[in-house]
Design goal:
The chain is of the alpha/beta class. The protein has two domains: about 220 residues, Spore Coat Polysaccharide Biosynthesis Protein SpsA, Chain A; about 90 residues, Hexapeptide repeat proteins (UDP N-Acetylglucosamine Acyltransferase, domain 1). Helix content is about 20%, strand content about 30%.
Length: about 325
């Protein structure tokens, strides 16, 4: 089976980090999101993954060259201009000649892809969306669906209490190749706003609701939450070889930690981090090669690769990279 992952976006909500690297290479538990995604795909027989790249695509290509051992062939397409979620998939038409999976590149989940594929076969639809329940669908598009799973429509950002359901688009789809014929070639097209309604009108759009862990990685707050959820045991992630996990702390290879440092709960240290005397860190993610000098306190923060936190600094609810810093709200 083939799959396509939409990795062309700029990831503006993850700035300042995405000023330096594309969102699909942002590390989750010290491994690039793309590597975690390949781990997620192992539950089904995907043999080829197409990366629809655009922003900072050279780094995506470098990743494709160096990654190995996944058992999945990686191919890539470069968008000269943003094509939207629909246009990006249409751009890969030459590679997609059978039933395929499509994904947005900002979801972290343990959705059961095998069940999703089985439902698609039984429904005989042209497109099946993975759906997940949320407590408040007013910030999303809620699916109006029949008991058979057939989707009648999506209601965008429904008023509280007026949503047709609490199931939202999980950003993963099973698609038949003929759906691509509905998408104009080389044009910017929104799959959600322009193509879903067309398929729904034909009665061939289905949704498969599944209660599972699901999180949108697209914000700094959600990025931190994903790591906290990992420590709670709510999701399974790939563990980097040589890392150490204990008591709510994840320590990357080569990290040097002064014996007086106080860590936890929910702390991730990247490779070769250096923590000085009397450092205190909680609910934070430090990327590779971060130096924290003595007496500094870090909480609810994300510290980018090679940053240096000077002695006696207090960092709270901040995202700091070599390109700048912002508040986490």
């Amino acid at each position: 089976m083939k799959a396509i992952l939409l990795v062309g976006g700029e990831g503006t909500r993850l700035r300042p980090f995405t000023l330096e690297i594309p969102k699909p290479l942002v590390p989750i538990l010290n491994l690039p999101y793309l590597e975690q995604f390949l781990f997620f795909l192992k539950q089904v027989q995907v043999h080829e993954l197409i990366l629809a790249a655009g922003y900072l695509s050279d780094q995506i290509l470098d990743f494709c060259k160096r990654v190995s051992g996944s058992g999945i062939i990686l191919k890539y397409l470069i968008e000269k201009e943003p094509l939207g979620t629909g246009g990006a998939i249409r751009n890969a038409r030459a590679f997609l000649d059978e039933t395929f999976l499509a994904f947005n590149a900002d979801i972290v989940t343990n959705f059961d892809l095998r069940r999703l594929l089985q439902f698609h076969v039984v429904s005989k639809g042209e497109m099946t969306l993975g759906l997940v329940p949320v407590l408040d669908p007013s910030s999303f598009g809620a699916a109006d669906l029949e008991s058979t799973g057939r989707i009648l429509r999506f209601v965008e950002k429904p008023e509280k209490g007026k949503s047709p359901s609490n199931f939202i688009n999980a950003g993963m789809y099973v698609m038949e190749p003929q759906v691509l014929d509905l998408i104009p070639e080389k044009e910017k097209v929104s799959l959600e706003r322009e193509i879903f309604p067309k398929i729904a009108q034909s009665g061939k759009l289905y949704g498969f609701p599944w209660k599972c862990y699901w999180q949108d990685m697209g914000t700094l707050k959600n990025y931190l939450q994903i790591h906290q959820d990992f420590f709670k045991g709510e999701l399974l992630l790939k563990i980097q070889e040589g890392s150490v996990q204990k008591n709510g702390i994840f320590i990357g290879r080569g990290a040097q930690i002064d014996s007086s440092a106080q860590l936890g709960p929910c702390v991730v240290l990247g490779e070769n981090c250096q923590l000085g005397a009397d450092v205190k860190i909680s609910n934070s993610v430090l990327w590779d090669q971060v130096i924290v000098e003595k007496g500094s306190c870090i909480s609810n923060a994300i510290i980018g690769k090679k940053c240096v936190i000077r002695k006696n600094s207090i960092v709270h609810e901040k995202a700091i990279s070599l390109s700048g810093e912002v508040n986490i709200v």
